[in-house]
Amino acid sequence: MELQENAALILIDQQKGILHPRLGPRNNPEAELRMLELLAFWRHTARPVIHVHHLSRSPDSVFWPGQSGVEVQPRFEPVAGEWLVQKQVPDAFSGTRLEEDLRKAGIGQVVIVGVATHNSVESTARTAGNLGFDTWVAEDACFTFDKADYFGNARSASEVHAMSLGNLHGEYATVVSVKRILEAG
């Protein structure tokens, strides 16, 4: 496992709305600290950082434009030279120039962190893998929320997180810890 010199860190949906209590119980309370560790490492090693922000098409979303939930959390504010991708659906590749921009920059490896594991993280990682990018998902730098399964059974955020990572690992992405990523860099 080797982290490429130009591996891109894709930081998904670190906006104020993701902290809204109406989203319910979440897992991995240390996730933001792990995201910040990777962000600091990427900045220190001058690797590309891509901030993905959600601008929802649904007025009842915590990411509806024009209200505070769409604003970036101050600790994840992009700095000069970092990319910004604005998406309207969970997949950061859908309806954006992300694939084109990664290819133009000669980037073949992406490391995905953020929220929610079962939603934007999983859909973005699936597409990245399908497009042929060497895709890593940092399992401890993502989190999600309690959710009922298709049959109406309540699932804890930890169960939803684990299943989502299980869906990705070995097929669309390599699921790995932040510690392993830092050791590979």
Automatic annotation (TrEMBL):
Catalytic activity, EC: 3.-.-.-
Tree of life domain: Bacteria
Entry-linked Pfam families: Isochorismatase
A single GO molecular function term of this UniProt record: hydrolase activity
Top EC class for this record: hydrolase
Entry keywords, A to Z: Hydrolase
InterPro entries per record: Isochorismatase-like_dom (IPR000868), Isochorismatase-like_hydrls (IPR050272), Isochorismatase-like_sf (IPR036380)
All residue ranges annotated as the Isochorismatase-like domain in the record: 7-151
Name of this protein: Cysteine hydrolase
Organism this protein belongs to: Pseudomonas viciae
